[in-house]
Amino acid sequence: MSTEPEQVRARVPLATIAREWGRIGCIGFGGPPTHIALLRRLCVERRGWLGAAEFEDGIAATNLLPGPASTQLAIFTAWRLRGVAGALVGGCCFIVPGLLVILALAALFLAGSPPLWVRGAAAGAGAAVAAVAVQAAGTLVPASWQRAGGERAARARWLGYAAVGAAAAAAVGPWLVLVLVLAGVTEAVIRTQSAAAGPGAGAGDRLRSLPLASAGLAASGGLLAVAWVALKVGALSYGGGFVIIPLTQADAVDHYHWMTSGQFLNAVALGQITPGPVVQTVAVVGYAAAGVPGGLLAAAVAFAPSFLFVILGGPRFAALRASARVQGFFTGAAPAVIGAIAGSAVPLALALQHGWQYAVLAAAALWLLAGRRGVVGALLGAGGGGVLVALAGGAV
């Protein structure tokens, strides 16, 4: 990847970066595909700040990193224009608008006695979330399957990693991070044909400490536990924003009891229908745990690794993409993530409490999977259906 010409950085004021990245943060409904399209239109087509090939390199490089890929792309493009200052200004302006909106909605939807229409909207939108998870997993399959290669053994391992990820998301909860990373380590070792030279030994020792750390934080609770859950999302998740669903569900609902299953469904729905990164769902989890301070802390911890990865690792992205070990790791981790996202649909569907919600789930599945329509439309339609049910006297 080429180094950034100084004259380009000099002619893009920080105020311009703040305005343009803030605008994308306000209108970026629809998740990563929308964010990437808006950034490409701004940086490549409209302003000509980056070349098309350089922008595509940025997408490829940020997709190698754990955490929310479209957020990292927003930070990366701003970094290419104005270095560290640009990354901080652009990234924050991209994140903050959606964060403010989702915290306001969290206060409304998680209130002790929300209005009837709010309860109906929450129950309806939450009913569609399991279908959203399956659709999100499906969109990731083609690229990951192609990346695995054409060998029969490689394809068999891909299916195995996906199956293990799905089972882990549906059954083991807080251990999911360990399963995802071990899938990546296994594939990296196989592809480099040397367990000693690959990332396996040291990574395995560190990863075995993760469940122990989680147990310790469970005992302390409070903001430390919020920070731990957010850190897993920001620094230890592979596959972008949607992997927040299996990574946080068990912690938020079963482990720390911050939310009911229905409230977690609401949190995921809010993360999908608000602008900006999907990972801002974690702010709702933090809000449920400790109010506004918890929501702000969760967001700060979840997004901090993205800034660090880009600012510290940006100059090394070319070497990262060329590393056989890194490529092997993500070749194994990606199908496990896809399986985990799909597998999270099982507990999400089981969390539904009313018969009409299953009808909404079926309709959302047809809209998303058969009709190949948008997520935002599905959730808004499901929420509207829930309002009608509530106003008609149905159980919400």
From TrEMBL:
Subcellular location per the Swiss-Prot or TrEMBL entry: Cell membrane
Membrane spanning stretches: 84-110, 116-137, 158-183, 264-290, 296-317, 329-349, 355-371, 378-395
Molecular-function GO terms, alphabetical: chromate transmembrane transporter activity
Topology in the lipid bilayer: Multi-pass membrane protein
Metal-binding among keywords: no
Keywords of the record: Cell membrane, Membrane, Transmembrane, Transmembrane helix
InterPro entries in alphabetical order: Chr_Tranpt_l_chain, CHR_Transporter, Chromate_transpt
Entry keyword annotation includes Calcium: no
GO cellular component, one term: plasma membrane
Domain of life: Bacteria
Family statement drawn from the similarity comment of this UniProt entry: Belongs to the chromate ion transporter (CHR) (TC 2.A.51) family.
Entry protein name: Chromate transporter
Lineage: Bacteria, Bacillati, Actinomycetota, Actinomycetes, Kitasatosporales
